[in-house]
Amino acid sequence: MKYVSIITVNFNQHQVNLEFLKSLIEYPSKKCKVELIFVDNGSSLQHQTEYKDVYPELVYIRSDKNLGFAGGNNLGIDAANGDYLLLLNNDTEITDGFIDAMVNEMEQKPEIGLLSPLILYHDAPSIIQYAGFTDMNYLTCRNSGIGSMEVDNGQFDNDSRSTGFCHGAAMMCRKADLQLVGLMADEFFLYYEELDWCEKFKKSGKKIWFTGKAKIYHKESMSVGKESAIKTYFMTRNRMLFIRRNTGFLNTLLFTIYYIFIACSKQIITYLLKGRKDLIKWVLKGVLWNFTNRIDSKKLGINI
Hints:
The protein is of the alpha/beta class.
């Protein structure tokens, strides 16, 4: 019997956590031993007793500070005992047979390093959020979502294929592969960390995979959402950090020219037109961070 460690990270989302736990209770694995590792990532209030009332076997780990998406998941990975690690956002709800379908896909294809399922919007369950990603254009650090915003008519139900990147809301890997690949880079804190992790798996010779044979519902809004200082800062900072970590000197140089003089300049003009002058400084701070913080390429095994 295969052993699966489900890892989820929480930061001040109590009601969402309860709904997540209830979905795991409703749709248990029929073929695998499962442990659930719940990382409370510096939340202001702790609800350990309530969570264990819903899911008694829950392994509760408390971090006194918010370690970010990567740091929180890494804390859970360190405590995991499973053959397979399933990183699931706490704002997702699983479906019948989900865990077993994910494990079966990994079992059938040993070349898979990271695997993501079909992801549908929870507030519009007939609309697809994720059915894979295209490859990255490393000069612009842009790619596209496959199937994004399409109506789900079962067109991906039997789909199983290599894809550009996995989706951070739901990813499965083998714990044994992490001996070579390593953990997620916690310096990202928010955004781009799962894309960077995919690059590390690719460099190890493993494939990034999508399967439509398993699906979840994600409570992320279909709309882009309200711009905020933290989102603007980390999206700006980490797009450049991703390129620095995963491409060579020439590509990084060409991207930096494009990024500063075209992409960021366009973003600043957009904020001016929207009356959001408050966000401009966070664009500038995000870019500046990359010029004032070095990357230890020997330690990380990357090119910069």
